[in-house]
Amino acid sequence: MEDGFSSDEDTDVSDSEVEDYEEERYTALRTGNHRIRNPDGTFRCPFCASKKKQDYQFKDLLQHATGIGASNSRKGSLKADHRAFARFLQRDLAPSIALRPEDLKAAVIAAAVPSAPRSPSPSPSPSSSPATAAAADSETPPEEELFVWPWMAILVNADPSDAEAEGNSLADQLADFHPTDTVCLHLEDEKGGRSTGTTVIVKFQHSWGGFENAMYFEKHFKANRRGRKEWIELQGDDVSGTLHGWIALSDDYNEDSGIGRYLRKHGELKTIMQVAKEENKENGKLVANLAYQIDVKNQHLHDLEVRRNKTNLGIHQLMYEKDKLHQAYNDAAVVAAAVPSAPRSPSPSPLSSPAAAAAADSEAPPEEELFVWPWMAILVNADPSDAEAEGNSLADQLSDFHPTDTVCLHLEDEKGGRSTGATVIVKFQHSWGGFENAMYFEKHFKANRRGRKEWIELQGDDVSSTLHGWIALSDDYNEDSGIGRYLRKHGELKTIMQVAKEENKENGKLVANLAYQIDVKNQHLHDLEVRRNKTNLGIHQLMYEKDKLHQAYNDEMRNLQRTARDTTRKIFEENEKLKAELDLKRKEVESRSKELDNMEAQNEDDRKKLDDDKQKVEVASMLQKETEEDVLRLIDEQKKEKEAALARVLQLEKEIDHKQQLELEIETLQWNLKILNQMEGEDAADIQEMEQKLEREREELESLNNALIKKERESNDELQAARKELLTGLEDLLTGRTLIGIKRMGELDEKAFQNVARKKFKSDEADIKAAELCSSWQEELKNPSWHPFKVVVRNGKEEENLVEDDPKLKKLWIEYGDDVCNAVKTALLELNVYNPSGRYVVPELWNFKEGRKASMKEIVQYIIKNWKSSKRKR
Hints:
4-stranded antiparallel β-sheet, elongated
């Protein structure tokens, strides 16, 4: 449920309108949907959303609403809001939560009892109104004062029954000071007969918030004249039942008593400067550690990039070897196909590529001292010749205080007759060292009784040649004189706590920035590791493919070698067989030649027969030689024919593709021809006349459309230029709570993040956490890859609706609740409307009353109305 109200501190209603306003608020509470009940069963006030406490019981919430409604110091609108809320709780909410009648009656009675008036006189209870403490002396302890760290305070003369009660009612009385613990010392006379009451050590948080609470404790008792000084003065008197309290300092720490022994055992003495420096030192160590982690991540990132480059080089080498293996495999296949008599072994199946197979800070007490920041001091009654000398001898005299600059004001009577000497503003460094020097300057003149107090007491006396000096405080800042005007022009009022918090806030921003850089480096490192793992997987796949290619290549080569050996062996066997037969024939011929020679005398027919046999043998020898040559020639021819066949196959594939393209074009032309044949029967003249008429109308419409578009663009440009000038000109005018103002579209509402951070984190780090969370989600809104919208057709138009169950939005809602989630949703919708492409924050003139973009008419009317009202005032 959403909060529908907020406490409006700028508006009020008259007494005559209170009842109507109360009735209107009561009706809104009954009919609206407002967050009143928390998830843990407690309740909250919708009119006090900015307050830290948001977890009341029903009785406490009713008493809260009734008390503010009956208050005489509250504004009429706030009183009417809480009166209506009290009626709503009694009449509407009580029945819905099944509250018993007796409980409701007790709650109403408790709410109706008026609060006891705060008495300015000293009270035994430390929980009296902080307004009483505001009357105390507002002097802040000097920064050289030694405090007991961790912060502690001393409460004497407490009632033993309260201090050691089971419910620890004393801790309840001290609740306004937010102590972390209370320690009751032994029940003995701690101060030599002052009192026999119990002495209690009150402990506070180890932070600047704890110091503020301890100082508030000190100022409270000091304002009621029940501090350490008064307790010492009352030695021996009967002060039973009167509490005295003060913050633990060096005098208590060094005291030879139970208090001193306890403080020395559980604490140590430190100045405010020492505590601030130690905190800054810890922040510096944290920053240095984060910077070192960034350097380590960068070095790791560099090493990963070097390893990635080496891996890429190895991949390129493996691809080159793979290509060489493919080439060798193809060459071996061609040689195997060229052998005629070799038996055909089934070729290995081609290997597939592995890629084809894979809460807000504690409120400072009103009496806390305000210093002028940057640190300045005032030196009066200086010698004008020294102040304006060329060598600036006055600056040499002040060198022990290490000023950064000295400014001499006009030589006139600055203090109404005190002195006619020069008044000098002494400036110090903008750091804690500068504050120490300024306090040293203050203590130097104060020790010589020449401080501000003495200067005021000497009004009208002759104090020429006597320098007086002091650190610039709120009294000097607000003074209606040259000093006051100079201080207001060049500085501002701040407490020590505010300066320390601003410095801590800057350190927090630096730490958050360094942490963000580490996260970015870690993400980049993670991405590189993922890429390295993918690369290693690819390498392993390539190595596997390479091994398979090597295996296939070796198997094919073994098959080719075996086939070649078998073929060669068969050829040699056939040749040896032919040679043996030829030798046998030759021997036979020689034998018969001898016989013929011996039988030469025989008849001529036998000789002719012998010659024929010789000729046949020679012919057979020639035929054998020709047969061998034919075998070699056939091998070459088969190789050439295979290459020609492959080329022919490629040519046929190209021709088939060309043929298919031609067939497609023929079908297209035939279809166009049919369309033309069908159109031949229509009246060509009418068609031509109609086409000309349509062409003329089209040209006229285009001309008119272009003129309208040009006119619209010019009007739109003029309107946008006017809105831009209004944004620039009205930026200073439209400030505060105005009806028409400038709204930054797409900017997150920091208040929602701060409210959540105050509940989830400690008070001293809530603002930093809220700023970090708000900044991270503002950057997430700029991410173009995150677009949690879906297109929905509604009434024939496409609209983009926000996806409510987006994972990021759901996670944000679970972690931080409705307020933060709704703030992010609102910023998303604004960016999607006003800057969907850039995704950055843009200013827009806005009607805050109706919650929409302001029109030019409304803006002009508003400016004229304000101008007329300002003219009437003049």
